[in-house]
């Protein structure tokens, strides 16, 4: 059996292979909204109205209270018009966030086995459809679908940071969400990445959790015990900081991020 199935028309050259799907086209609406509505129907009866009201406030959706609370979100999106599916994705993203925030036990009806696997169920729909969006590794939001090796490397870095420097892991998660989430914020992504480096290096280099990245670079500049595990052509931040403007090109040796 082949590992990656492709439609017959694509294999035979009858039609071109499609790029990643933007939004939620008509042929994706039914399975996606089945998932969304199931999320609302799985709420304990006394919680539905409050959740739907918060959804309307968070996403600025005009809810029609003449419909049952479980159906108000879908009716509001349809009434507003959602030709590109962006609003539908916003609702899915919000539900994933709330699912992670309140916990499965609070969300699911008694004896329901559906909710624990809800994020994976949505990811199966999105992946099968070739969507540009994927459920995040933590299952708490939608992320832009990037190369799996990049995702694996990021997950490994976050897992390592969670063991060695938990605050750095928090900043790494925030940086990833800001870069690849539904509402990208590159400036925040850079800031969170810098703060992650600070959180990981300050206790190690400075011996205390204070100061900024500049203090770390200054210490590296004067402390000969440390080298950076990066080929010189990528640059050594401490050495570049010291030698900037001197025109030094280096000797091509690798520098290793550990004490000499």
Describe, in short, the structure shown.
By secondary structure, the protein is mainly alpha-helical. Helices cover 57% and strands 5% of the residues.
Roughly how many Å is the radius of gyration?
24 Å
> What's the main sheet like?
2 strands, antiparallel
- By DSSP, the count of extended strands is 6
**Gap between N and C termini:** 51 Å
The overall pLDDT average reads: 78
Helix and strand content put the structural class at mainly alpha
Name a few traits of the molecule.
about 260 residues; single chain; disordered C terminus; two-stranded antiparallel ribbon; 12 helices; 2 domains; globular; mainly alpha
Structural notes for this entry:
With 260 residues, the chain is mainly alpha-helical. The protein folds into 2 domains: 17-144, no CATH class; 146-207, no CATH class. 57% of the residues lie in helices and 5% in strands. The chain has 12 helices and 6 strands. The chain has helices spanning 8-11, 26-41, 48-59, 69-80, 86-102, 104-107, 118-129, 148-164, 166-180, 186-206, 213-222, 237-243; strands at 133-135, 142-144, 226-227, 230-231, 254-255, 258-259. Strands 1-2 form a two-stranded antiparallel sheet. It has a two-stranded antiparallel sheet with strand order 3-6. Strands 4-5 form a two-stranded antiparallel sheet. The longest helix is centred in the C-terminal third of the chain and has 21 residues, at 186-206. It is globular and about 70 Å long.
